[in-house]
Amino acid sequence: MSSADIQARIGPVLVNYAENGTFPGEESVAAAHIEDTILPDALDVLNMAKTELETEVREISRQNLPDVEAWMANARAVHEDLERLRRLATDIVREAEVDEDRLELLQDREAHMQLLERETLFNKRLSEALLCIHQVNDALDQTEEIAGKRNILKALKLLAETWQMIDKLPVTRTRTARLLDDRCFDLRLYIHEQLSSVWQNLIHWNKEDKKILTINVTIEGVGTSLDEAITSFKAFRELDTIAKQLWEDLDNFILKPRTDIQHRAFVSETEPGKSIKSLMEDLELVVQFLLQNLPNELVKCLSKIMMPIIFTRVKEQWLDPAVPSSMEGVGEYQQSLTQVNAFAATLDSLNWPATEGFYDWVSNAHKIWLSKRKETALDWTRNQLALGVGTPTIAHHFEKQMVAENKDIQGPAQTGGTEVADWDAGWETPVDEECAASDTQKSQTNPSLNDDDDAADAWGWGDDESTDEPISDPKPIEDVQPSTQLEQRSEMRVVTLSEPYWISTVPKLVFDIIKAIYDDGAELMKPENEATPVSAAAAGLFSIPTQILAMYRAVSPYYYSRDASGNMYTYNDTIWLCDKFREFISAWDSRHALSPRTRGFIKLNTEIEKLVSFGKRAYTNELTSQRTVINDFLGGGQNFLESSRREELEQGIDTVITHIKSTSEAWKNVLSYSAWASAVGFLVNTVAKKIISDVFDRDDLGADEANLIAELIVKVTALDDLFIPDSQSVQSSGGKNGTESVDYASMDLGTAPLTARFADKWLKMQYLGEVLQSNLANIRFLWFESSLSLEFTKEEVVDLILLSFENNSQVRGLIKEIKDSEVKETDEQS
Questions:
Q1: CA 733 remoteness from chain centre
Q2: In this prediction, what percent of the chain has a pLDDT beyond 70?
Q3: Total number of domains constituting the chain
């Protein structure tokens, strides 16, 4: 399409857009460039379109003119109708306003009528309330008047009715109602005060003599009886309170002075004795008096408070002290049981409650007696133990031994080479000749030193015992055993040996009380005593000695420790107790009057074993303690001989010697000779072991040091003086019953010390001193010609040679000779 055609179509396109809002559909027209020259033509086209549109509008208006006129007429008619309706509405509103005034007047009149009705109802209710208040006030006045006349029960009933009237008042939440309530409470307090005053007159304690109690059922001029007073207190919920108060007065003025054993006031007019019978009679009088004069309700409350306290006091101050602690007084105890049982039966017949405590005390009589017996025995034993060692007394241990008819009895000085049995072989119970003969054919075995009984474990005994090396037990006085079949076949004879030792006061007291308990048990087991009230406790009585001994083992170490030789006294005391218990068992089994069941109750063998272990433990603890002290003096865990100062070494040895001698002297006044020698020998042996051990622990040893050690050993050998036999060390008993007595005092015991017998390292230490001062030739002589090989092994001698001499050809030659030698050497390995 040419540009001229496009320019010519611009005007119609604009008109079409103005009328219809449409764009040209052809791309060439829509995208054509409009130049200024075509605008006038376009405006002309638009004006032509405008003119055509106006002409069309005028034509349409001329065609619709009648319709427009009709619409305008209708509009004027509608306007007139609206105006008429407005005037009508105004008239209606005016008439409605007149009706509202008339309705308001009517409502005012109705409200006035309702007000008059309410005022009438209020006046009616007010009149009724005032009448009720007047009635309540009159009732309160009447109640107060009746209470003033002490007619308590009637006053309480009227007060309760008045309270109900107050609850029904139509004005319950007003000040008037509160005032009435307050007056009721005040009146209730007033009635309670009157009741308390009446009660004090009904239950009256004499002001001058408080032990006089007057109970009035009624009082002249008082409108309240005793029963009514109880009912009144129930209304106040104070029956338990007045019962408690009555009990306190009754107890303070009458019962406590009578039941308290420290008082001297009694209920009876004539003063009775301080016996359970008189007490039961007086209590029965009190109960009968209360039952006859007090209402049942008060009696029930009073007895609930009274009986537990009375029973506890009577039991603690009268009945329990009346329980005997032995068989003495059992007859009186039985009478007391009869009296208490009769008293409880009397209370039951009187319907007096809470008598179970007295019946229980009677039915458990045997248990109570057994408990008292046990408690008394244990307390007495504990008190005796608290006294400590006391004054030591001498005792003798007797031993019977079988020896060949042609064999001489040797004293302690000559027994160094005999075979020694266990330490307690010399502490056996004396046996008859036949038993002793059979015993010589058996090897004797004894509990080891470390055997602990259960009781000891429970108390932790032995926890501090050293386990570095075993401590040998005390050796016997004498244990001669036939060594050949010829001696065994030869005729045997019984020899009774004895040895003195010292015991504290404790074991005799313990044995006496245990023996007394067993004797009481045997007495109760007799058929003629089956009717006694404590016969059922016989079996339990036999268990008390076990508890006494258990307490002895548990408590005595503390009291023994107060004495410097306490452990040794413990050892001796247990030995003495074991001997006595064995004798007691033998005598008990020989009592033909006892039944087999009674004989079976004695079970002391286990206790004897525990006592033996207990004594051994004390002995061991003492030696362990002394060993520690000696080792501390000699350097403790260090090598004592390492010190380069001669003064220190000599001072240490002197201190040890002094300590051993002082300890030996202290033990000599306690232990038997055999036990003393064994204990002191252990101390001496400790010194010997320490010196020997320290020498072998040295790496080298000079000549001066060897001589110094030898001199120290010579100092130690001064302890030999402790073991020189004394003719009084061992004594014998006189012979009887076909046995032969041995008198060591008449023997020649010699003067050779017995140190080597009780200290197995003693000779070894002495030989060590000789070796340290010897040359090679002397050592060869000591080994081959003397007894050095009996104390030292080949290895030990070789070590000593290498320690003291330089390793040259002569030394090596001697060492080879010793190693190749066939000399019998000691079996002991250090």
A1: 53
A2: 81
A3: 4
